[in-house]
Design brief:
By secondary structure, the chain is mainly alpha-helical. It has two domains: about 5-205, Alpha-lytic protease prodomain-like (Up-down Bundle), CATH 1.20.1510.10; about 210-290, Alpha-Beta Plaits (2-Layer Sandwich). Helices cover about 70% and strands about 10% of the residues. It has eight helices and three strands. The chain has a three-stranded mixed beta sheet with strand order 1-2-3, with helices on one face. Strand 1 (about 230-240) and strand 2 (about 245-255) form a beta hairpin. Helix 1 runs antiparallel to helix 4, helix 2 packs parallel to helix 6 (about 175-205) and helix 5 packs antiparallel against helix 6.
Length: about 300
């Protein structure tokens, strides 16, 4: 059995599948001469580069914390996700560039039967990979896997639109649909790239986690603190650091509480929060309350 982390195994599969899909789409383009299929193949080149970047990012992200990176290397995945968003934009620009001349000088396509069949196989492979990456990215809270999944999903959407457009162009004889559709799909690719970059920059800037997740975690901490005899929890904060999250808070305890008792409450809070999220890093700072008697949290 492989000892590689699940994220790295998927990253390797993504790279291998990307290379296979690129070859298939290149064959489909050569068979048909379709500029839309050429644009589709150009995006697959970006997919291969992005998958390689994701593999490196996942490896770095799973390195243990060290003196220079005491919080670990998880944010390396956000860098990969930003790169993927940027590469999606490059793919969109290349698609428009390839389609522009054909938009004004359309021509009939040949070898559509074989070319479309090859492209359908490539699209099916991409669709399966995108689904696996998105599901695994959410499960393992991996920004790089999730970004690569959405990136490949955009490729699936592109390919589906291209094939539909080619079929319509063949049925109607209006071959200008080939480059026109390539341009329209490129706009959709740009939108998906922007969303990826926006999410990743939020992670790099320590944007707050989902409000519901923070509220749920705070409720757990307050319940445990109340049961232990603490006064209140203040300055409760959470942030995402790549594949894991960090949580810190101030625990207010009665001024007469012994250090050992306060420390025990901190331990129970950490245990309760990590029961919800095993990768969560928890930091609790204890401060005494001027009120010595027990109060509800």
């Amino acid at each position: 059995m492989s000892t590689l982390p699940p994220a790295e195994r998927l990253a390797r599969w993504s790279l291998a599948t990307g290379i296979t899909v690129l070859l298939l789409k290149g064959i489909a383009w050569r068979l048909t001469g379709s500029v839309a299929l050429l644009s589709d193949a150009l995006e697959s080149i970006v997919n291969v580069v992005a998958s390689f970047a994701m593999l490196l990012a996942v490896r770095i992200a799973h390195l243990p914390a060290d003196n220079n990176h005491p919080y670990g290397h998880g944010k390396a995945e956000y860098i990969s996700a930003v790169l993927e968003g940027a590469l999606i934009a490059v793919a969109a620009v290349l698609s428009i560039y390839a389609a522009w001349e054909r938009l004004f000088h359309p021509r009939a396509l040949e070898g559509l039967g074989a070319g479309v069949a090859v492209s359908l196989v490539a699209t099916a492979l991409n669709g399966l990979l995108a689904w696996r990456l998105i599901v695994a990215g959410r499960k393992h809270r991996s920004p790089a896997l999730t970004a690569d999944g959405h990136h490949i999903l955009s490729d699936v959407i592109t390919s589906t639109g291209v094939l539909a457009g080619i079929g319509l162009a063949r049925a109607t004889g209006w071959w200008r649909l080939d480059p026109l559709l390539a341009c329209l799909v490129a706009v959709n690719i740009l939108w998906m790239g922007w969303k990826l970059v926006r999410h990743s920059i939020g992670g790099l800037m320590d944007e707050v986690l989902d409000t519901a997740e923070v509220t749920r975690a705070r409720a757990v901490a307050e319940r445990v603190a109340h049961e232990g005899g603490a006064v209140a929890i203040e300055s409760f904060r959470m942030r995402r650091t790549g594949t894991s999250a960090q949580c810190d808070m101030i625990l207010i305890v009665p001024g007469v509480m012994e250090v050992q008792a306060a420390h025990a409450i901190c331990d129970r809070i950490e245990e309760a929060l990590r029961a919800e999220d095993s990768d969560l890093g928890v930091m609790v700072h204890v401060e005494p309350s001027p009120v010595a008697s027990r109060s509800s949290v």
